[in-house]
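Notes on consecutive records. When two proteins share a document, each keeps its own sequence and its own token line. Never mix them. Below: protein one.
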Amino acid sequence: MKLSVFILTLLPLCTHAFGLTPPVSRTSSVQNNPKTSLFPSPPLASLFSTKEEEDLKTDGNGKALAVNGGDATAKSSLSETLTVTSYFMLWYIFNIGYNIYNKQALNVLSYPWTIATIQMASGIPYFLTLWLTGLRLAPKLTPSEFVKLIPIALCHTGVHVGAVIALGAGAVSFAHIVKASEPVATCVLNGIILKEVLPLPVYLTLIPIIGGVAIASMKELSFTFLALASAMLSNISSAARGVLSKKTMSASSIGENMTAQNLYAVLTGMSTLILIPLMLLIEGTSFIPAFKSLANAPGGGFTSMSLAGLLAAGGLTYYAYNEVAFLALGKVNPVTHAVGNTIKRVVIIVASVIAFKTPMSRGSIVGSSVAILGTLMYSLAMNNQKKK
């Protein structure tokens, strides 16, 4: 509950972070650049920069402001630094909150498909409210464009449900160690689907990733094959989502007002529709009596209200951290993004170990450190390759 109170104190920051101001009509950068992936690598600054921000940096003719514009530039720089800092704080805190709430719920209700569906659906009231009130421009898609997004939505579903199953089957720390191996799946699928051959330095960074995950898996005290397989399903789905989105957008543009946040909202709605029948097929409605039994159990520590609150907190923090991630990553360069993402994974692992008192063996610590360092090296190598 202490974490819940702490997160609630941060809600004022969310007003700016989530763009809760009347929208300015602009062409979506996703639509504007057909070769941009639906899940592009940062920077995404074009999604968030405005003409007013550019006027603070130039004299209107593309020349940088000198002495006369010094004060305005300094104020803009300070404001930008505070904004980016708030984005990263929220990104980390919501992510930590999601992992803790999710694991707490899965520890008492072993229904990962139902919990994944609840979490995915939790964001729908949020973005529908923004669209209906005009606080955010609603996307416009034709039926054929929806069809084009179905494969990506299926991958989006796999990313989430795989992660939820992994968190329920093993330790949070182990799930994130395995998740660090996503670049391996990305390289493989890039080669198979896009026929893309990357430079040798990029492939060499996969060695510490694979080795680190292997060491951590062998020494993991709470190792289960289900946790490993589910985390890898999430990795493969995430890599496929990125590759398929790149392939889709290289062929044609998708819809109107398809900013990064609106794209994520559309995929959230589509994934919810995919998950509902799968949830009913695999787990049926047995979650409902299990929920009631737990809430009514004497000395169980839960009431219907507190249990529902735990599930809601997991869903809201899930959508919130993804929403803020788009904003945070769009404000920084790729190197800062790579470092920030690496630190985020370390912070989540440390926070989960503290929260759940999950022991990590020395081998697991060494393996996770090597794998995470390899992920950082991969990100930097990919960034260097893109500059050439």
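Protein two starts on the next line and is unrelated to protein one.
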Amino acid sequence: VCDPSVVLGTPQTYPTPPTLHNRCLISHPQPHPHTHPRSHVDLTSMGVGMCGWCGGVLCEWQLHKVAGALQHRIIRFLMSIHPRKRSIYLTRHGESLYNKSKRLGGDSGLSQAGIRYSVALKAFMQRENVPDLKVWTSSMQRTIQTAALFENVTSFKALDELNAGQFEGSTYEEIKEKHPLVNESRSLNKYYYRYPRGESYKDVVERLEPLLVELEREENLLVVSHQAVARCLLSYFNTIPHDKLPKELPYLEVPLHTVLKVTPTTQGCTIEKFVLGPDAVNTHQPQSRPPRYWMLVPVPMYSFWLEAYH
């Protein structure tokens, strides 16, 4: 039996009446033997193998004076985590026509190599023999085509690729030649830089947050997404510290036609890499060092001026 008290914020009255969850019993403010001046949560184990939802530990949650958006997000996330053994497979879509021409974004279909990868991916998952597999894709046709041979497929707009704004369909060489200020500004801070009328990596992280809660509820899952999204998900499972995200997340290497198998454990996650082929173009952009004089330009001010200019 465990009874930890988790301090979550300032005390307020929680107005919601008692509800019954199919996994845990949630009881809202009730008399508590210990007087605590701040909001907190009591979690009590009621025995192993008693929960019909997960077959694991049945718990009683007592929420005391919990209020506010952040506190509710924390509670919702904690209640989404389950102890059942599972595997999460992360992969990018098969090689697309835009990948072959080295163009950003767009909604192009698969190349011939990408179509062969969709077949190889299906064969790989059959060899894995995963029970009750669910498949998530983005709303873009290259991920939907990659998962065309699977059943139980759901598409999510939140899994869409980072939006390059007015530079959708351009190549890095074209941006460097015609818009050197954009190229240098993004090289200076790739995580926070937002394309004009587009997104930054930080924007992608924020739109993925609600989906992570749903991901934690699932069991065996195959996520077919894009390079920026796969980097964000991989950084989550690798538990990269928040202060290191700007330096590490945008440069994680997630090649095409490769599957990353994530297995949650009590000590974190183990990640296995499977290269399925066929050969595809390399879309990874290594970190480049901008000219020294750009270091004198504040990124937020410069990005604001750049977006207003365009």
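For the record: The mean pLDDT is 79.
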